[in-house]
Design a protein that fits this description.
34% helix, Beta-lactamase, 20 strands, single chain, alpha+beta, six-stranded mixed β-sheet, 614 residues, five-stranded antiparallel β-sheet, Penicillin-binding protein 2a (Domain 2)
Length: 614
């Protein structure tokens, strides 16, 4: 009996304790913890995402290249969108009833209970016209955000564009992004996405039965602040970027200019280009399709994706390798006789030179000289076989950043074309090829493919007498001006600095007395090399590379104008104007000199070109 009574009291105690726990829990839920209250009142409280302002981008002088502009997304919660005056609503936002049905069904498919975008990026004017009527349409409200704006409408391929994330991008980022978020799709917007995007915030507001905003819930106690993205200071100089885009109008090609002492890119032009503002706003999708289908391919980023035979500009590199390998000296001379004979074939030279020394061979661009030099490097080198000699030669070329990516801070960079031993062994079979088989490489033709960025970087190496910093478009990040370590690392080329002077002498003569005299600048010693890169699909490409001044160089530049002939005709004068503008901040050439370049239409040419030396 005693045991029965003891068990009775134990059971009663357990029941009383359990009831006590339940009462305490209910008190906590209903009085102390507001989260359950918020959940129960979703019909009167609305949680909004607060989108941060994306980081602003400046040029090297502090001028804004990319800024933000406020827009408004019209959001809808389908479950709440009932008993609407559909016709009136359609008139309000300028759509037809069929479009309304398509959009509301899409929103329902996403979620009947969660908000999604019904109309994107309404302008401030459009928002002002609908905000006073919006309370007539339950389930609809406006979300504030910003989009990009480009005051000068330049550097489209550098800056890139942003777009709304899709399911694939959400998955790739481990669900960091949400439907409705924007992300960098191309250009530095993509490369620096994590820096530019900032951090989202949240805001909880109260709304009444008529869908009207009644202010923050609990004075913003549960809100979180959005953090704006970091600013970027680009290396671009807007003065020459804008001028270069004007000079390249109605021309296909590229301009890349680099500050040799830092690797900072001063000018980056891919032509034809486009107004980056076209990829902002409600018409972004339609405009993108038009750009994608345009025959001139404005979305193709030529400075890092186009690969050209470098032509005669490659001779400067060959001259440096030849000296380092001790197969030539500045006084070495080779016969010309109008070309270099290979059995019954000949690599022609533009002129029938007398034997030239190294300096003269660059100034007069003698093809024969560099064929003889290539023979000495490949067939008569000191490494025991053609294949081993070629490997050594190829390694030198790679040191100049040719045939590999330079790791610019843009997506989709290509490394160019530099054939391997395996490539020639497969094509000709091992042991059955030598310098004469691949002689086109001697003068920058054949299987070589070099990007305009690599051409400009090669000029920076020669300007620096043997080193370079990786070319980059963003020089500093954020208010603390942080620099990426990878862009402060010096890359050395294994060529003695004493070998550069004779090459530079020849390059200065090209401008002072040779094929690029039309590009000569008063009071500036510019060293350059014209080139005519052969094109199997049509007229040759006009190429010019240079740096200036000769001592303490401030700029290295490469200009390519596709299908336009000799380097001296188009590429050299364009480069000359940009160099003068950058160094002097003015241009001394007469109006006719500039107008000829500005007004030329080489995409649909009507001009007649006279023959000039390459």
């Amino acid at each position: 009996m005693n045991i029965f009574f003891e068990r009775k009291y134990i059971i009663q105690a357990i029941l009383i304790f359990t009831c006590f726990i339940l009462i305490v829990r209910l008190f906590y839920i209903q009085v102390i913890d507001d989260s359950y209250f918020l959940s129960a009142n979703n019909n009167v409280l609305r949680k909004l995402t607060v989108y941060p302002a994306r980081g602003i981008i400046y040029d090297r002088q502090g001028k804004i290249i990319v800024q933000n502009e406020p827009v408004y997304d019209l959001m809808v919660i389908p479950r709440q969108a009932k008993n609407l005056d559909t016709i009136g609503f359609c008139k309000l936002i300028s759509i037809d009833k069929n479009e309304f049905i398509i959009r509301i069904n899409k929103a329902r498919k996403f979620s009947p209970y969660k908000a999604s975008i019904f109309a994107k990026q309404l302008s401030a004017r459009a928002y002002a016209s609908i905000q006073e009527r919006l309370f007539d349409y339950p389930g609809f409200f406006v979300q504030n955000r910003t989009v990009r704006r480009y005051p000068d409408s330049v550097a489209a391929q550098v800056l890139g564009y942003i777009g709304e994330v899709d399911e694939n991008r959400i998955k790739k980022t481990n669900n960091y992004y949400q439907i409705g978020d924007y992300i960098g799709i191309s250009g530095v917007e993509k490369s620096y996405e994590t820096v530019l995007r900032g951090q989202r915030g949240t805001k909880i507001i109260m709304v009444d039965a008529l869908n009207r905003d009644q202010g923050s819930y609990e004075q913003g106690k549960y809100d979180t602040t959005a953090i704006a993205g970091e600013k970027l200071i680009s290396s671009l100089d807007l003065r020459i970027q804008k001028l270069a885009e004007k000079l390249m109008r109605n021309k296909k090609g590229s301009v890349v200019a680099i500050e040799p002492s830092t690797g900072e890119i001063l000018c980056f032009v891919s032509s034809p280009t486009y107004d980056p503002n076209l990829l902002v706003g409600p018409e972004r999708g339609n405009n993108y399709i038009k750009l994608l289908k345009a025959p001139e391919k404005p979305l193709f980023i030529r400075p890092i994706m186009a690969q050209y035979p470098p032509g005669s500009i490659f001779k400067a590199v060959q001259a440096l390798i030849g000296q380092q390998e001790k197969v030539i000296t500045p006084e070495s001379r080779f016969p010309c006789n109008g070309g270099y004979s290979i059995g019954n074939r000949m690599v022609k030279c533009e002129h029938n030179h007398s034997p030239l020394n190294l300096n003269e061979s660059i100034a007069q661009s003698c093809n024969s000289y560099y064929c003889w030099l290539f023979k000495k490097l490949i067939d008569q080198g000191k490494y025991g076989s053609v294949e081993k000699n070629y490997l050594v030669w190829r390694d030198y070329i790679l040191q100049f950043g040719i045939g590999k990516k330079l790791d610019i801070d843009l997506p989709n960079e290509l490394g160019g074309l530099l054939p391997t031993v395996g490539f020639y062994d497969k094509y000709y079979s091992s042991g059955h090829w030598k310098s004469s088989t691949i002689i086109s490489l001697a003068i920058g033709q054949g299987e070589l493919g070099v990007t305009p960025l690599q051409m400009a970087n090669t000029m920076a190496i020669i300007a620096n007498r043997g080193f370079y910093y990786s070319p980059h478009l963003i020089k500093a990040i954020g208010k603390d001006q942080v620099k990426k370590e990878t862009y402060t690392t010096k890359h050395l080329v294994k060529i003695d600095s004493s070998y550069f002077n004779v090459v530079i002498d020849g390059m200065q003569q090209v401008v002072d007395h040779g094929t690029a005299t039309y590009a000569k600048i008063a009071d500036i010693a510019m060293c350059g090399k014209t080139g005519t890169a052969q094109n199997s699909h049509g007229k040759s490409h006009s190429v010019f590379v240079a740096f200036a001044p000769r001592n303490n160089p401030k700029i290295a530049i490469a200009v390519i104008v596709e299908n336009s002939g000799y380097g001296s005709t188009w590429a050299a004068p364009i480069a000359s104007l940009l160099v003068e503008k950058y160094i002097k901040d003015s241009i001394s050439r007469p109006a006719y000199y500039i107008d000829r370049l500005l007004n030329a239409d080489l995409i649909h040419p009507t001009f007649t070109e006279t023959k000039e030396s390459h």
